[in-house]
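Write out this protein's structure.
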Amino acid sequence: MIVLAAERRYIEPEEHHQGFALATLQSNHLHRETSESRAWTTLVELLSTRAALQANQTAFIFHNDGESDEERLTYAELDRSARQIAVELQRRCQTGDRVLLLYQPGLDFIRGFFGCLYAGMIAVPAFPPSSARNERSTGRLDAIVNCAAPAAILTASRTLELVMSTVSAIGHTICTDSLAAGSESQWRAPDLHSSTVACLQFTSGSTSTPKGVVLSHGNLLHNSTTIAEAFEHCERSVGCNWLPPYHDMGLIGGILQPLFVGFPHVMMSPASFLQKPLRWLAAISRYKATTCGAPDFAYDLCVKNIRTEDATALDLSSWDLAFCGAEPIRSRTLQRFAETFKPCGFRLEAFYPCYGLAEATLMVTGGSKAAGPIMRNTAADALRDNRLSTPDGSLARTHTLVGCGRARSDHRVVIVDPNTRRELPEECIGEIWVAGGGVAQGYWKQPELSLETFGATLAHGDGVRYLRTGDLGCLSGGELLVTGRIKDLVIVRGVKHYPHDIEQTVQSSHPALEGCVGAAFAIDEDAQERLVIAHEVQRAQRKTPPDEIVGAIRQHVGEHHHVQPHAIVLLKPGQIRRTSSGKIQRMACRAAYLNGEFETLAAWTAGDGALKHERPVEKADAPAIDPRTQALERWLQEQLAQAVNLSAEQIDPTEPFARYGLDSANAVSLAGAVSERVGQDLPATLFWDYPTIRSLADVLVKEHGVGQLTASAA
């Protein structure tokens, strides 16, 4: 039974989903609050209201391992924790200071985020350091610290030691799960307004250095209203996601949206999902979740990794909105997922493709919930001419675009010629410009870049200042179709080419390139823009003559895109630069190519004639090793081989994991398999701390004592 303290009424719960008391809290008062952002001017007011009216209702559930060990947090508990943290921050820092949040995914992050807001300070969510030796994560963290200049760090006990060893020159480090209870009564409510800055949302850095997007309380509440209306959320909705809380989709869609509407949300860590994708769908089934979503790759991962016999126990019939965004949405991914999980009750119509970006808080466009995804076939040649056109029937010349819906709320979306700044008609491709209440205030401490990005005006002068998204797309019947990014465009002799299209062609041009990643980018050569292709090669295919692979690439790119590469470099696995979320950093790859930083197997340049090959190096005989370590090595070879589609004989235990194309997602998944096999909860950072099978096996035997178990199992 739930008590609405403000109205002194009692409401009997109507439904129970695995412990959720989903009361009908749709009084006129609450309904107005959840449907219009004017009910609150700040997120502090929002949470305070929830704590008063729904004090003991579960707001969030977190699974430590994705399956059990659940932790719950009510609205009243979150409000109390936020006040305690705020008291500590107010004692040490000044109003408006930036506070860096370095938490592993979980309820501590939510407490820390609202603790910052309750203190009147600016939250800076960031990816926590996974290892002091992981230069990629620490490098990004250093860039965020240099930009935001935080006055304090909030973290938890399990992360404290690593934070202290990787982040320096910050005044205060506060371990929020060690604060004494009872201090919440000392909280002083800060003077907050709709325009007060709530957080800095740092961009992924897929095309450049991360930038801090300045988001106000008003921005976040406006976008929460937009999402609630588009997704048709109500208090009976149930969310379930694994999205990282320090990214806009995870923070705004996975934490603020459930809080805004007042429905419960189930969380798990990204590592739990990557280790075992079944966990996500099993949680959706268990809690009868209604709204869940992820980028395109996650749906593809479910199809590839969930066995048919495991899927038979799933009931996905409650899942009526599966949002998809954050990266190119592929029609094939949506169709394969829907076909695979149709026996479990999933419907293709549940997919909800949408478009947004951190600079617009999160969501900009989305469709009708009942309509399902809209897919548009167009002639591939027409795309190069910046337009849509009905294909001639040849599948080889047809490109399928997935619609991302229409502008939501008060947003306005226009397609603009980026050179003339003139608005383009429908079905003409240009830069996507956005205006509306969700558009952020700019980039932190970057006024010139902010003016350039957030202050764009049309040539005909409609008096509106637009956000230049840097994305390319067009409108067709009001539906937004996203086609690429301006910064990544390759323009050869005046013809525009989308790099992801070229990359897909290259990947399918030869068996040695299948399952590997590559990057297509342009360089200036002899005062002209030239196409360069860098692509990783399967280790199993390293004996294939490079001339054969290069010839296949040149043939397929020429046939499908009518352009010849200026240069092709074949790379060892792990050379292509990516963000932490897996996006290809084409500008970083371009820089690596120009600076000679790639570890190449072979390189070809137009006009140079013969290929330049890597010289093979003979390996010295390996020294004798402990039999237990040797047995464990054999088992690890089998696991790695399965993860990267090779045979165990092709895995050299002394070679770095990166040589086999083991990205962060596969590393986390493999760590889960190792943990399960040896019966110990091992950290996913093992594959960064011990980057070869031999070094990993050695530490597992000597420090974790698992050699005997694995040796017998092997």
